[in-house]
Every structure is written in structure tokens, then in C-alpha cells.
Amino acid sequence: MRVGGGKKHGRYWIRDSTIDTASTPTLSQIRARSTDSAPPIRPRPTATQIQIEQATMEARIEEKLREERERYETMMRSMLTYFQSTGVPPPPPPDLFPGLAGVPPPVGVPPPVGVTPNVSASPADTP
What we know:
mainly alpha; 2 helices
């Protein structure tokens, strides 16, 4: 459809032909012809209704995430309690950022065994 409101007398350009809106029934004509058994013509939702639905959906998602997080924390606490009761040390925490292998460990944490730190050569090492 071309921009600019169509053609005169209510015709619209669509591809190579035109549609004459005089033969297209109006909404009031469609409503008058519809019977009680026909599905009703529903109005479009307003912007406010859409925003309310989106906010409701976001609240549901947040609630599900919160419940999932609580379930995970409960599971981790029970695992830690089990490890403590058996005398086995708990496993190390997971690597949250595996892509940051080149980042040095926090202060006070020794580097992993078998890994040499990336230290540049000192001036005394050069000939």
C-alpha cells in the first residue's frame, strides 16, 4: 500500500490493482448482519491494557525466577549440610565466568596448581 492516504473516492493502491472500498462493508454493516451464534467482533486492546498485561507477565516471570532461585538455594544448603555431616569437604564453587581465564585471581587466592601467571620478563632476564 502506498503512503499518502490512498486514491480518491476511497480506493487504495495494492500492488498493480486497486481495491474499491465502496464494495467493502463497513463495521456497522458487518455487525448488523452478524447473528448471535456468530463470534462477536472484539475491539483491539488499548495501550493501557497491553501495558497491564505486560506488567502482569513480567511479575509472573519474576515470581517463577524467585521460586526457582529459592529452590536452588535450599538444595545447595541441604547438600552443604550433607557434606558437613559426612566429613567430606564440599566441592569448589563453580566457575561463574569461564571466559575470563586471563583475569588474575582475587587478592589472597593462590593461582591454580600447574598454571603459571602471565608475568612479563624483568629487565634482568634480558641479555
